[in-house]
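Fig. S4 source data, part A: sequence.
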Amino acid sequence: MAYHSNTLVYLVYTDINMDTLRILVVSQKGGVGKSTLSANLSVWFSEKAFKTTVLLDLDPHGSSSTWVREARSSDVVAEHCVLDDFDARRWLINCRNRVRRHVSKVEILICDLTWTSAMDPEVLYEFDLVVVPTSVSSIELSATTRFIETIGWVFKSKSGIPPTLLLCPSRVSEEELATDPFSARDFSVPFMLLPPIYNDDSVRQLFKKQFVFDVNESMAGQSYGRCAQSIQQAGNIHKQAARAVKVTFSDRRFLDTHNTKLSRYMAEKSRTQHPGNDKVIGKPEYSKGNTANKGRKNLSGLSKILESVIGPK
């Protein structure tokens, strides 16, 4: 990493442990199960996938790290850290340092983050998977779509290895999914759709006591299990694709230390210089248009929507 006047020059992932699967669970608002997913996903990777796991809780409330620390014992290392310096560049550097401090020591890093407009989307490059929990009401999906549009340029970048975007229908019912909510939407970037997490009020009673996987017979326990397995599979797909990409010095990004306008410009320029080269290996694409059939034709892999995820369980 080198500094030159007002410009920061760094190589993409040059000091990142490529074997560590780095997962960011992020949303702009509460009530969608972000912290619940973060806490239970970290325990799942530790106890079901037998991986050394760290939970980095950057949410001011610290719910996910509190859950892991105060529930029954587990091998997950939970750290609560509030980065309150919201100058965009300083926040980015502090967050990046926190992430990189852990990845050299563990197999799985899960980060719990509530997004604000003051944060720098450049931080998404520190992760392999970006998981966005969302409910499926019209209002909530509209908010999720706008959020994705805000950070979408990161996933479209041809520079280095962009993260994989995963949408997770969270705290939903079978009746809500039966309305085919995702096929009727236009999304600006490709993504994988995770199996849904069904709404279950009993999950809240487990806070700081047990984990969702401790009650396997419940609908919540089963849906969290399917979701966690799919996230693990998505990580494998991303890692395989990443290993096939040779990152060279030409993949460096020049970032203004006060904002990210230059990096966004370069990402956009890269797309315009490679017309027709927008396909992302291992990711389903969502075409323009609002018809359900058109949306279904572009779904593949982990993105098994609606009829598969609400089928027999």
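Fig. S4 source data, part B ends here. Residues 102 and 128 are 15 Å apart (CA to CA).
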